[in-house]
Structure formats: structure tokens, C-alpha cells
Amino acid sequence: MTRLGILGYGNLGRGIEFAAAQNSDMELKAVFTRRDPKTLTINSNAKVYSASDLAALKDEIDVLIMCGGSATDLPQQTPEAVKYFNVVDSFDTHARIPEHFKNVDEAAKKSGKIGFISVGWDPGMFSLARLYSNAILVDGADYTFWGRGVSQGHSDAVRRIEGVQDARQYTVPVPEAVASVRNGEMPTLTTAQKHTRECYVVAKEGADKARIENEIKTMPNYFADYNTTVHFISQEEMDRDHKGLPHGGSVIRTGKTGAGNAHTHTIEYSLKLDSNPEFTSCVLVAFARAAHRMNLAGMTGAKTVFDVPPIMLLKDDPDFARAHLL
Amino acid sequence: MTRLGILGYGNLGRGIEFAAAQNSDMELKAVFTRRDPKTLTINSNAKVYSASDLAALKDEIDVLIMCGGSATDLPQQTPEAVKYFNVVDSFDTHARIPEHFKNVDEAAKKSGKIGFISVGWDPGMFSLARLYSNAILVDGADYTFWGRGVSQGHSDAVRRIEGVQDARQYTVPVPEAVASVRNGEMPTLTTAQKHTRECYVVAKEGADKARIENEIKTMPNYFADYNTTVHFISQEEMDRDHKGLPHGGSVIRTGKTGAGNAHTHTIEYSLKLDSNPEFTSCVLVAFARAAHRMNLAGMTGAKTVFDVPPIMLLKDDPDFARAHLL
Q: Does A311 touch chain B (CB under 8 A)?
């Protein structure tokens, strides 16, 4: 049995509750929140505690799953929490991973715990797809396509524009680019050739839609480098048609082998997800199992998805896995 | 540097030569053959030895890659070779994996070596896809589709029919079945609903084609449960259009999460391979690297793809992997 805790109760925290309930070897013991615990209604029998009470529960939880954001929460919370628990986070600021790894590694080695960082699907399962396919096809090219799915960062960026009441942004892979890559053509693709961006926007009454559309399409980093379409819709349409958080994508590597590099091979790992946070939660719970097992086996320090023998993620034992999954 | 040997010089052995040449940390030292070594012309600078000389080279090779067949070679050869070397084999008789694992494990623990079994793409990379997706989506269904690709076992079976001069059999997934699975419909599929079989046959002069076609279509285990089509072609057409050994397929798992299991997720791992033996060779070489590293780290015994931290497969170091692949 692995006793789980959650720090942070948003979409991801709620996803962990569902995922823990699906795994008979997991018991969700505690939800920690920065809000007033009395104001929180949750979907399970876990107890709700203040985030400031973490240390007091250090003997009652095997793995704490970090459900905060990557921008400001996790860089501070994960090295702190790993003083008391094995932890798993979904830190996804790719450029800052080496620094975050180092901070968590130092704290985890000191406390004798395991600190998994950057677990989820990208980084996470997509990273594994990249690593395996690079280890196999040495002479090749990598492609990652995201979507069709909701980018919360881009949706937030649109919402911050004056006159915008609500917004939802979908990242969409360009079908011709995906087809060319799958076909082993190893194309060189610009940013705009890989993805388009679709925005659904509810404008405030009387707002200048032409200005909003222009501000979106010219926004640096977020939209300026892409072909972006903007659809103005009513709040009713937004609530009816754009409530979900679907996402997904594909990691594709094509490579050459043999005499004269005559043979082409394509490896593709694809996800199609109805709910981004619920799927991410399933991944986090599987790695929480591994964190607990690795720590029981005497391992400590920061870890990523690259460091786990896959068998440690599975509830079933190795004999079963060899007989039924190999 | 990992010093490699090959036991058996067929399609797979030749593939290992190419794969070793693509990996700058690999050096192919020796090819062992059951034929007269003097009669063997190879594509690299490795030395050719008789298979009976294995033991004499035990200090000059770090990992021996087993390139024999699963039916009779590997069950005998792998436990024998692991007395002297770390070994990697591609044993693919799924039903006999537990027994083969046990035999290799005993011998490898005694000799202090690593014995990887069942490495390749199925078993191998497809097994990993099944394990990861089962660990993540606990409440779901698994599907494996093979092809479109050449099944050498089925091609051989057709060649054994009286009046057949040459034959090539393609396993083909049924597009409607794949589409339904990808769509998250979790269909229950019979054998015939998942794959069809296409045979290209060169009949000997004067042979009764109707009888040959009937013998193929009613052959138990191989064809009787499938929709099979038979095309009679000339030897020229066979040599021109069916020389290659392409293969591939998809492992798909769909699962449900969330309140009322309302959300469906699909994980798919797909391969499209111009050359089945060359791709399998690339996988074997990556696991040979891991075998060497694991043994240097003090590990021994039988291993499968489930037991390796993925980072051990990659030539690049963990810092590089975290910065560029995570």
C-alpha cells in the first residue's frame, strides 16, 4: 500500500483523487491546501490540511504529489516537501529543468527521499518516447506535435487582453506537416509550418473586436510566429462547446539504417486525451508507486522518467508482466 | 567502449553490423558462425570464428548478441553463452518466455553476467508500450495490430506446400478495426476482424493453383481463422516487388478516467519499418549498451526490457538527456 498526499487542489489535485481511486494499492490520506482547509470540499475521504502542516504528517504519507504550477510554486515547493516525503511533481518549464533537478537532488539526498520531477506527458511520456527512439535510431530526426488541444497558457494570455471576457486557445498540428513526417520525408519545418492556433473569444460588450483580434495575432512569443484564427463567440457557446481540457499530440522519430542508409523507419508515440489533467494525474500516480518502491529499495535523490525501470510503475508483479505484457 | 560479438550471421547478424557502425561507442569484434568460418564473407572488420570457439574469447567481448532462431537455437544457446558473456537475445516465443527467463537467470547469476531476453520490437518495444500504458490507464483495454508487413513464419508455411516455388505473406491490419480502436470505442474483435493475410505465390510449372490456394486458406493456425487472399505471380514479379522485409504495427490502449468514467484517453505506439531485421538490430544494440553498463554496475541475472532504466540505453549522458530530451 502506498499512502498518498496531494499539495494543491485544482484540476490536477482532483485528477489525482480519481486516479488514486482506480489503483487498489493506493490510499489517498491527505489533501494540503493554501486556502482555509474548512472552505475546501473534496471528492474523497482524504483529510484536508493546511499547506503549513506538511511536516507534521511526515510519517503518515509515503509520497506527496505536487499539484502546483511550474512558474512559481514548484521551484520552491518541491525542494521543501522532499525534506519530509518522497515527492512527484510535473515541473514543465523545459529550460529550467537542469536547475530544478539540482535543487531537488540536493534536498532529497539530504533527507534520504526520492524526488521525481517533470512527470506527466510532456515532459514525461513524450520525453520517454524521445529517449527510446533516439537510443534506437541513432541517425534520424525528431518531431513533436501538440494538439489538437487546449493550451492553458495561451488561453490565459488572450484573457489578459483588454475587452476579453473569456477565451480558449487550441493548438492544432498542421496535417500536411504530420503526414510528411510520418512518411519519412524528414522535412525541415518552421514554427508556423508545424502548428496553427485557434482562439475562441468572448468579447466584453462594446469591446473593439478588430483591435482584440489584432492584439492576439501580433502577440510576441505566443501568437506572432503562427497562423492564428480568432472566432468571436457568445459566453453561452463558450460554456457549451469549450468546457473540456482535451489535449494530446505525437512524438515521431524517423531514422535510416542499412547499406547506403537505404531503409527508413518511423517510430511514433501518440496521445489523444479527453482530459489533460486527469491523464497527467494517472501518470503521476504510476510514478508515485515507483518513487515509494525505489525509496524502499534504498534509493534517494532527484529522479526523472528516464531513471525508472518500467516494471516499478506497474502494480502487478514481474512474473505477471513477463507472462502477459512482454 | 562496448566490445560486441554476434552469434549467427543471417539477416539479423548483418543488421547488427550496420547498427554497431552507427554507434561510436560500439566496436564489433567477432562474428561466430556454425558454418565453416572460412566460407563467410561479412560487411565489417570483425573477425570470424567458429561457434565452438565462444569460450576462448570470453575476455575480448563485453556483450554477445544472439542472432539465432527462437524455435531451437536460443533456448539452448542463450543459457550457454551467458556463462561467458553478457548477452542479448530476441527470443520471441511469447508462451515460453517464463521458462526461458528462468533458464537464463540461473546461468547468468552463476556466471555473474547479464542475460537480456526477448529484446526487439515484439517482444521488446511493443511490450514496453503495453507496460507503460497499463501502468497509466488502469481501467482500459489493450490492442496490438501487426503490419502491414512480411511474416516470415507464414511465408515459410506457404513455401512448404507442394507445387509452391516461392511465397511471401503479408499480415495486414483491418483498417476499420484500427479506426474503431483509435476512436476509443473499445471494440471486442475476433481474430479475423483484426488482421487479414495476403499471400503472393509463385507456383511451379504445371502445379494446380486451385489446390494450392485451398491448402493455404484452410491451413490451421496460420490461415484458417483469417480472411486470406492469394495472388499468383511470376518469379520475376516476386524478385522485383517483394524483396524487402518491411513490418510494423501499433500497440493501442484506451482507458477511462474521471467522474462517471466520462473521459476516454488513447495511447498509441506505432512502428513503420522498411527492414524488420535492421530495426530489430538497432534495438538489440541499444540494449547491449545497457547490458554492459548494468553489469559494470554490479547487476547480474536475466533481464527484460521492463528492467532497464531507459537512460542506460542512451549513449549520451544523463545531463544531456535531461537538458535536451526531457
A: yes
